[in-house]
Structure formats: C-alpha cells, structure tokens
Write a structure and sequence with these properties.
By secondary structure, the chain is an alpha/beta fold. The protein contains five helices and six strands. A six-stranded mixed beta sheet has the order 3-4-2-1-5-6. Strand 5, helix 4 and strand 6 form a beta-alpha-beta unit. The chain is globular. The N terminus is likely disordered.
Length: about 160
C-alpha cells in the first residue's frame, strides 16, 4: 500500500537511480496521507508531491498537502484537484505518478463522500494533464480501497480511460 515506507523506499530507489525521469510529480488522491511516499522524496527538488487527503493543508517546498473536507461532493473534489493541478503544470515534470485509491468512495474504509463515478473523471483529468505537461507519461499506482465490488467496477473504467486515445 501507499502507507508502507518499505515498499515506497523501493520505488524511490528505482526512480532516483534510473533515467526514467529527471523530474516527476506524484499526485496522491488516496484518502489517506502517503507518509512513506512523502518521506522518500522529502526535500528532493526534482519531485513534486501533491497530496489530497483529510489532513491539514500545508506546503514545504515541493511537498504540498491539500486538505479535503469531509464530507466532500464529487464536484467540489474535482474542482479542488483541478485547481491544484496548475502546480503540476508549472513544475513541468517529465512524468506523473498518480497514487490512486478508491478508499475515499462512499462505504469504503476511507469514506470522504465520493461516488464511484468520480474516479473515471479523475482519470480523465490526470490523463489530460499528463498529455499537456509531459507527453502523456502517466503511471497509475493503486494505493487504497478494500471493497472488491468497488475494485471490480472501478478498475476497468480507469483502464479504459487510460487505453483510449
């Protein structure tokens, strides 16, 4: 999961020791703060970490935490994400990682009030941003969610958005 510092360290080591991307942005829409991800890239000027969670809002260099109110409507959440994606555009990354979790969906363990349909809209938004900023280079990492019924209905929709031109 995104909360495991050990697995995130492996990702960090791979990225930092390779030529995958000189600069990259991590957009974290999992309902919980990705502490492990945050710690791996803390103070790295080549990484923008933009996290949308229920923790307080704060900013330290390229590490931005955006507080998501509870409960939140799909429209308000999408507006919040879209407004902050301007930060990704100005950072000009070579690659965007989307730490996606569906745990914020109504009825899951991180329920913040989102409907299942918001995830496909998020996928479109992130794909559009990657297309405009970094030649469409977008990697999606599934970080959270526990309900199999949600996984079965949401994951194919995300793949469909990503697979279409």
């Amino acid at each position: 999961t995104c909360h495991s510092e050990r697995s995130e360290e492996s990702l960090g080591e791979i990225l930092q020791s390779s030529t995958i991307a000189g600069r990259f942005a991590i957009v974290d829409t999992d309902a919980h703060h990705g502490d492990g991800t945050w710690q791996v890239f803390e103070n790295d000027p080549h990484v923008l970490y933009l996290c949308f969670c229920s923790c307080g809002s704060f900013e330290r260099g390229n590490e931005v935490n955006v507080r998501v109110p509870w409960p939140v409507t799909d429209e308000a959440y999408l507006r919040l994400v879209e407004n902050h994606l301007a930060r990704v555009s100005s950072f000009q990354p070579d690659l965007i990682f989307w730490n996606w979790g569906y745990d914020g969906t109504r009825g899951d363990y991180g329920d913040i009030g989102l409907s299942p349909g918001v995830h496909v809209q998020l996928a479109r938004l992130l794909k559009q941003t990657a297309g405009a900023v970094c030649r469409g280079r977008l990697i999606v990492v599934l970080c959270g969610g526990s309900r199999r019924d949600l996984a079965a209905s949401l994951i194919p929709g995300i793949i469909e958005v990503l697979a279409t031109a």
